[in-house]
Write a structure and sequence with these properties.
This protein folds into 3 domains: 6-49 and 139-232, Gyrase A, domain 2; 51-135, Aminomethyltransferase beta-barrel domains (Alpha-Beta Plaits), CATH 3.30.70; 277-350, Elongation Factor Tu (Ef-tu), domain 3 (Beta Barrel), CATH 2.40.30.110. The protein has 8 helices and 19 strands. The protein has helices spanning 6-11, 31-40, 60-67, 115-125, 150-155, 202-213, 223-232, 267-272, and strands at 15-19, 22-27, 42-46, 51-56, 80-86, 92-102, 105-110, 132-135, 140-146, 170-175, 178-183, 192-198, 218-220, 278-285, 296-299, 302-312, 319-326, 335-340, 343-350. It is globular, with a radius of gyration of 20 Å. The protein starts with 5 loop residues before the first helix and ends in a 7-residue tail after the last strand. GO terms for molecular function: aminomethyltransferase activity; transaminase activity.
Length: 357
């Protein structure tokens, strides 16, 4: 599948990769240059492969309270909430960002690989509520501007009050002459914005942002640097740090589970599993060899876990990784090691995130 911006990416000579059935730009120039642009200036991302599902109606809030682990009825209009959809056993089906656009209108943003599952589950779980579930993915494009110069860049093409737009808040705005939902959210550890726009207007909006960002050093950025950026920021990736065999508590994200709600899918299982034996930990290496996904984590000669994500951090200059380990070994300062292609390399458990702006 191709996003509405596919021709733009081809014109920029992007290198493409298959991601959840979408042909997406993995890099344009170099992932290191794009990573540094986001940390030092700004990067422009096409995120149109993500799923956008609208939930509306008199009982929309109550329906989402039941369908998801968060308390969406407590979210104010104009704000967003990071939450998860779990199965009946407490396993994570997807992690989501939900925007409350009105008293009876919500936008659920799902990961590309899980959009069909989230849509099917929402339709099933809201069936007994006075609420409608509508898939808006095909008609919606999503563009992100991320980095310390994001305010300058977006501010140059909008009259919206960006200084008053808080983190995890959104508002309808006109950007570059296009009506968008402008959200102060992101997946890079930097300040920035995500802009939801009709897919038919995505190319024009991309060009407007590119032109506005040229004086500030804005660069198009692909999935490769997005992965190292989110890893530095300690943000989980579904399929690596999250999955149906894991609960939010394994990922140290139990705060998103709101047990004060009377009922929601997975509640009983999550009550039983709220004190897991294994939890997600940050690992810092000392050399130049980076732990990678699926590499073994060792305590002495004993295998105690596997790396879920790892890379040589472009910002910090040393290897970083995340891995699930026994809770007693997740304390910062604990010494472990990783088997990197047959060579045992020492690592130290550190607190997440690795990087904070």
């Amino acid at each position: 599948m191709h996003t509405a911006l596919h021709a733009v990416h081809k014109g920029l000579h992007a290198l493409f990769t298959d991601f959840a059935g979408w042909e997406m730009p993995v890099r344009y120039s170099s992932e290191l240059a794009e990573h540094r642009a986001v940390r030092e200036a700004a990067g422009l991302f096409d995120l149109s492969h993500m799923g956008e599902i609208e939930v509306t109606g008199r009982q929309a809030a109550a329906a989402l309270d039941y369908a998801l682990v968060g308390k969406l009825s407590a979210v104010n209009v104009g704000r967003a909430r990071y939450t998860m959809m779990c199965d009946a056993d407490g396993g994570v089906l997807d992690d989501l960002v939900v925007y409350r656009l009105g008293e009876e209108r919500f936008l659920v943003v799902a990961n590309a690989a899980n959009t069909a599952v989230v849509l099917a589950e929402l339709l099933k779980r809201t069936d007994s509520f006075d609420a409608a579930v509508t898939d808006r993915s095909a008609e919606t494009a999503l563009i992100a501007v991320q980095g310390p110069r994001a305010v300058d860049i977006v501010g140059a093409v909008t009259d919206a009050d960006l200084s008053g737009l808080k983190y995890y808040a959104s508002l309808p705005a006109k950007v570059g002459g296009h009506d968008v939902l402008l959200a102060r959210t992101g997946y890079t550890g930097e300040d920035g914005f995500e802009l939801f726009v009709p897919a038919t207007e995505a190319v024009d909006l991309w060009h407007s942002l590119t032109e506005a960002g040229e004086p500030s050093g804005l660069q198009p950025a692909g999935l490769a640097c997005r992965d190292t950026l989110r890893l530095e920021a300690g943000m989980p990736l579904y399929g690596n740090e999250l999955g149906t065999e894991l609960t939010p508590f394994n990922a140290n994200l139990g705060r998103v589970v709101k047990f004060e709600k009377p009922d929601f899918v997975g509640r009983a299982a999550l009550e039983r599993r709220r004190d897991p034996d294994r939890v997600l930990a940050g690992l810092r290496g000392t050399g130049r060899r980076a732990p990678r996904h699926s590499y073994r984590v060792l305590d002495g000669e004993r295998e105690v876990g596997v790396v879920t994500s790892g890379a040589l951090s472009p910002t910090l200059g040393y290897p970083i990784a995340m891995a699930y380990v026994p809770k007693e070994l997740s304390v910062p300062g604990t010494s472990l090691s990783v088997d990197i292609r047959g060579r045992i390399e020492p690592v130290e458990v550190v607190a997440l995130p690795f990087y904070g702006r």
